[in-house]
Amino acid sequence: MKKFFTILFFVAMVVSAQSWKQATEATYGPLNKLFFVNANLGWAVGSKATVIKTTDGGETWTTPASEMPVTNSLYSVYFINENVGFAGGSQDVILKTLDGGASWGKLKFEGTGGYVRAIYFSDENTGWVLSSTSSSAIVAKTTNGGASWTTVLTHNGGDIEDMAFYSEGKGICAGGGGGVLSIYYTTDGDNWNKGTLSGLPPVYTRTDLRGIYMTSETVGHIVGWGSAAAGLQPSIHAKTTDGGATWTYETQAEENRTYVNLWSVTFKDENNGIAVGGGSYEGSLAVRTTDGGVNWNIIDPPFGFTLKSIFSIGDKVWICGSGGGLAYSTDFGDSWKLVTPMPSTSFYTIDYAGNTIFAAGFNGLVAKSTDNGATWTSSYASVDKHCPTIQGLFFLNSQVGYAARNNRMVTKTTNGGKTWTKIFPDTSWTSAVNYGTYFVNENVGFVVGKLGTGTSAFYKTTDGGNTWTKKVGTFADHLKTVYFFDENNGIVGGRNMVLAYTTDGGETWTNPTVNNLPSAYSDADVQQIKFLNNQFGLAAAEALLKTTDGGKTWDYVSISIQEKNIKSVVIVDENKWYVVGSLFVFKTEDGGQTWTDVTSPEDFQTKLVYNSTLDGKGNMWISAGSSQLYVSDKPVPVEKESAPVVKSYFLDQNYPNPFGEAVPSGQLSTTIRFGLKKPGHVTLKIYDALGRNHFTLINKFLNLGVYNINFDASGLSSGIYYYSMSVNNVTLTKKMILIK
Fold it and tell me: 254 φ, ψ to 5°?
């Protein structure tokens, strides 16, 4: 091996890499459809031409294709055998693979110009596809493996949302968008006839039929539209026993009615089936029948993502959906295992306690790290078959924590987020939201939010959440944040510059004096309040406010570089603070007299930055959209060699390798060398063996040349890792070994 590390000549210029490391990212985008050819081998498709594959029954998933011929979102997938398969997506895209998904080609197909929502093949030559827009649909047939297509059904005046076949020629398709309920059936695959549905109650404003399954040539099931917001419209269940010609609406007992969209349905035999869907309050929802679809009972996949697809083989069941969530059951829905390492969500809140970092947000996802962000676990805080969004977190220590949530819910964990219990009654009313919580100890705690638009809500418990006192409408608008020094003294903030303090535990409130606030901020939202001690604090109120008397008076602090929409603050000491908003972090080290922008445009890969906290080592953490968490870090020097013109892109093996405390060198750092034949935006990331991104070492534009970067792995455990460089549509990856 060439020992480039022993003699290096450097030009004078040193390029500094970003001072923020991306600690987490979403594993997948939304997933729309599943298909398995046996109990081990299956595929899922989703947004941005995502195709993932499992060979171990859904335990682990890989991306078999290094590149795809399109970027369209995919909504349907069907495999004839382990090699030959099809996927369909937006803009009438149909893809075909002959090698199990390792490579794909695009087929010529002219449908409606909309979405290819369903695919079925009876053999390698004969197949049908459903293409639909919001106002029209066609079913097309091929007899030559997709080389050419013939339209066998044309539908106008609404969409068709799904299609299912029991065998060649025996199929059903149905829809209902646009206000037109439509069902068609065929007995030969070429001629399609209209079906009818009887017994549908008059309560429905929409009748979208979204999922179909046939258990025989004559028996089929449809599930679809449901809504609580539009006047308690139950999820649709319907059944046919004559191949789709006539259908019966199956009315459910009141205690079993669900009011969400059901997107997909499967049966393992003529009696036992599961249908799935979900919503922002319910999270993942599934209903199960044991009597052939007449009665459906709610079961509880304990996740927060909306389920878009279900597939079963015997008792083994797989589900996928929004946020890239993937899970499976081996007992036909009695228990479930989440297998997506990091589902996609917006992390609205973040907290640090007892050497543990917690982040949480949309659909109730909670991410946790006990090793300074080197590794993460994620789970959904589902309680009583509901999983509303988490707006605020507060942990007393690494085990005991509280979550303020949508639908007025408050939950508590005593085991570091493994399980949660409800300590405040929730409601299906979506206008009731709890935004912030603060507990002085396990007995005394406070929660703030709203009960409706503009209606403030303040709750207090003195017995650990068993009972609560409440004050509704006390403030001019709803509350967003709360901070208490002890049982009696605290501060709240909210919309339209609501700011108040109490000295009697919330019985009475006093408006503080706010000095020099520009009129442009008179109706700004107070989004976060933090204190260093019982006197000194900061408030993120789109502008920045400071108090030195425990919140009784506040002073406007100007950030002279430019005014920003400040969402969060971090206090290191009375002079050193950070303010955070979308795509910026400003720092002061002199009590706000001068400010430095400590970000560059490429630091954050999302504009949706929400919250921040400080860990025990003084590192600053920022929560953002797309399951992204960022941690502050000292700039990593990227050193450019004085070298001849580079003729190709290259990524050398790191040196030393292996490295770590248990190898002769004893060092916990290693050098990575790479070359660029053209300038471009470079990313250099560190992944573990499961594909999880642990560090982003470089994320910026670099000129052509040869570069070296030193990677410090002190925060990682022993194991095999991969480092991957991407630039100008070129990706190079190598393996490194860390031994501690």
Answer: -55, -40
pLDDT at 483: 98
286 bridge partner residues: 276, 299
At 581, is the secondary structure helix, strand, or coil?
A: strand
Residue whose entry in the numeric block shows the structure tokens 């400590």: 598
At residue 610's C-alpha, the angle toward residues 261 and 715, to 5°, is 105
* Measured distance CA(457)–CA(448) in Å, rounded: 6
Q: C-alpha angle 273/278/280, rounded to 5°?
A: 165
pLDDT in tens, 655-675: 999 999 888 878 888 999 999
**Phi, psi (degrees; rounded to nearest 5) at 364:** 75, 20
- Grade residue 690 by pLDDT with cuts at 50, 70 and 90: confident
Strand-pair partners of 283:
279
Strands (E), 72-169: 74-79, 85-89, 94-97, 105-106, 115-121, 127-132, 136-142, 150-156, 162-167
- Whether the Cβ atoms of residue 360 and residue 347 lie closer than 8 Å to each other: yes
Region class of 574: left (phi > 0), else alpha (psi between -120 and 50), else beta: alpha
| Residue 1 pLDDT grade (very low, low, confident, very high; cuts 50, 70, 90) | very low
Tokens found for residue 450: 């709203």
* Sign of the dihedral defined by the CA atoms of residues 43, 49, 50, 53, in that order: positive
pLDDT at position 240 over 90: yes
Contact call for residues 23 and 629 (beta carbons, < 8 A): yes
Q: Where are the beta strands (DSSP E) in 17-60?
A: 20-24, 31-36, 42-46, 50-54
Examine the pLDDT at 605 and tell me if it is beyond 80: no
ω into 656 cis (within 30 of 0): yes
Which residue, among 198, 197, 182, has the nearest Cα to 139 in the 3D structure? Answer: 182
**Torsions phi, psi for 225 (to 5 deg):** -55, 145
Give the pLDDT score at 17.
Answer: 36
3-state secondary structure string across 180-248: CCEEEEECCCCCEEECEEECCCCCCCCCCEEEEEECCCCCEEEEECCECCCCCECCCEEEECCCCCEEE
Give the chain's count of helices (H) and strands (E): 0, 65
Among residues 246, 193, 244, 247, which one has the least CA distance to residue 218? 244
Decide if 396 contacts 417 (C-beta within 8 A).
no
DSSP 455-506: EEEEEEESSTTSS-EEEES-SSS-EEEEEESSSS-EEEEETTTEEEEESSTT
In this structure, are residues 308 and 263 in contact, taking their beta carbons and an 8 Å threshold?
yes
**What average pLDDT does range 221-245 have in this prediction?**
94
pLDDT at 6 exceeding the cut of 50: no
CB count in 10 Å sphere of residue 37: 17
Task: For the chain, give the number of residues.
Answer: 740
Lowest-pLDDT range, 21-30, 153-162, 308-317, 683-692?
Answer: 683-692
- Would you state the structure tokens that stand for residue 585, as one six-digit string? 């972090």
If DSSP codes are grouped into helix, strand and coil, which group holds residue 179? helix
CA dist 77 and 130 (Å) reads: 12
pLDDT number for residue 9:
27
* Rounded Cα–Cα distance for residues 303 and 282 (Å): 9
pLDDT in tens, 177-216: 877 899 999 999 999 999 999 999 999 999 999 999 999 9
Identity of the residue numbered 311 = F
Separation CA 75–CA 469 (nearest Å):
48
Domains and CATH numbers, the chain: 31-338 (2.130.10.10), 636-738 (2.60.40.1930)
The answer, yes or no, to whether residue 11 has pLDDT greater than 60, is no
Contacts of 57 (CB under 8 A, 6+ apart): 39, 40, 42, 316, 328
Q: What is the mean pLDDT of the chain?
A: 91
Cα within 13 Å of Cα(452), Cβ side: 2
| Terminal Cα distance for the chain, rounded | 24
